[in-house]
Each structure stands twice: as structure tokens, then as C-alpha cells.
Amino acid sequence: MSKNTGNTILAILTGAAIGAGVGILFAPDKGSQTRVKIKEGYKDAQKDLEKKYKELSEEVKTKFSSSKVDFEGSYDDLLSSMSHKTEDVITFLESKLAELKQKNARLQK
Does pTM top 0.70 for this prediction? Predict the structure, then answer.
């Protein structure tokens, strides 16, 4: 979770708690009506948090899926490059082996 998102969630929770406290202190309504308002405020804050959570989840999923694609592409490129390098090394070793065979053949005469 990013620092910004954590701060946003903390601000929402703090605002909901302060709003509920102020609502209770200055409520001109009966206690039962005040409790209903607090429950509604709580439900609104809960919906906001759920919305933020879903947005954050989607953002994280998107970033990880694109990172996975980037990683897979890099991995394929690396394997391809290694394959070409391996072929170059094998070709070099084959030429050196041919040279050594020629030298060995001259020495055996």
C-alpha cells in the first residue's frame, strides 16, 4: 500500500470518528435518531473504504500484470541472447579443435 493511500484511509477514518463525535455532542435529535445517523455515517465511510480498496486492488493487479509481461519478455530476450552466445562459443571451440587436429596430424607424420 502506498503512503498516499494509507494517509487517505487514515484521513477518512479520522474524519468519520470526529464527525460522529461532533454529531453526538451537538445533536438536537433524540438518542435513537442520533444513533441512526451515526450508523448511516459509518455505512458511508465503510462504502468509501471499500471503494478505495477496490481501486487500490485493481491498480496493484494492473501494475503486477504489466510487470509480469515485462519480466517474461526480458526473460525470453535473455534466453535468446544466451542461445546466440552459446552458438558463438561452440563455433569458436570447433575451429580451435580443428586447428589442434591439424597440428596433431602434422606431428604424427
Answer: no
What three-state secondary structure class fits 104? Answer: helix
List pLDDT tens digits, range 56-106.
Answer: 878 877 777 766 667 777 777 777 777 778 888 888 888 888 888 888 888
Q: Which residue has 486492488 as its cell numbers?
A: 57
Distance, first Cα to last Cα, the chain: 77
Q: Report the alpha-carbon distance of residue 12 to residue 41 in Å, rounded.
A: 11
Half-sphere exposure of 66 (CA within 13 A, CB side): 5
**CB of 82 closer than 8 Å to CB of 74:** no
Grid cell locating 76: 525470453
C-alpha cell at 51: 471503494
